[in-house]
Amino acid sequence: MSRRRPSCGSGPEPRARGDVRLDGTFLGWVADYGSGYQDAQVDCWKDGAWATGDYRGNRWFRAYVSHTGNATQWAFAHSSYVTDQSAVRGCRLVG
User: Fold this and answer.
1) How far is it, in rounded angstroms, from Cα 75 to Cα 66?
2) Which of 2, 8, 25, 60 is at a distance of 20 to 30 A from 66, taking alpha carbons?
3) pTM (2 decimals)?
């Protein structure tokens, strides 16, 4: 059985954020390539602000995604929008 690559939901709800806070960290909407998802490399997870996406939770994944801020970069996406999740490490705190 092959494992699917993680993907990040796109459209009007999934937001790319610079951190796991809801204030002042919005980078752009995760870009939509017609399928409603984009393949994403997922690096780690971090618990932060509680948010409601497809479900309510405080877990965020750091993923390499394209977003409407005209960039492809590492950004945090709410866990409810990351499909085919695989085991990744917790993000190390910086500073």
Assistant:
1) 9
2) 2
3) 0.81
Residue 69, both tokens: 């801020």
Taking only the tens of pLDDT, the chain with its 95 residues reads 334 555 676 655 678 899 998 888 888 888 766 677 788 889 999 999 998 888 899 999 999 988 887 788 999 999 988 888 878 899 986 54
Name 16's bridge partners.
Answer: 28
Which residues lie closer than 8 Å to 17 by C-beta, 6 or more apart? 25, 26, 27, 60, 75, 76, 77
Chain-centroid distance, C-alpha 94 = 19
Instruction: Round to whole Å and give the CA distance between 41 and 56.
Output: 23
First CA to last CA distance, the chain? 41
Q: How far apart are CA 7 and CA 81, in angstroms?
A: 8
Burial (CB count within 10 angstroms: exposed 0-12, middle 13-18, buried 19+), residue 75: buried
